[in-house]
Known about the structure:
This protein has 149 residues and is mainly alpha-helical.
Amino acid sequence: MKELKIKEGYSIKETSELTGMSEDTIRYYEKIGLLPRAQRKQNSHRIYSNENIETMRLMICLKKTGMSLDEMRPFLNISLNSDLAQYPELYEKIQSHKQNILEQIASLQQIVDFIDTKVGLIGRDNQACGLSGDRKRMPARSPRADEMP
């Protein structure tokens, strides 16, 4: 994501570029009330504030954790500068969500370890068979009976 430029307002295109969120997604989130309705210029073009952009960045972060739109809604209803400890229910939710993510990471690490073990075995088997490198060639395949002329 690009660094946030400080200015009065951003067009939807600039907002999309700054956040990495598509223009269609921004409009959709406004439509379902996840984002507040954008302010409008006299020509009716949307204009977004620095706070809007920070909210979108928070949404992107929460979405990357696997949080659904409904699950993230309460986090977006509090100020970005709020101390989450002041909201025990939300604090508990985010801690629980974090624990789920840590469990997913551990599970994925087990899968990576399993794959590494299997890949390691395959490599050792090839060496034991003497088929590693270009030094030896696989014997030519004998034609099957149904392939004979």
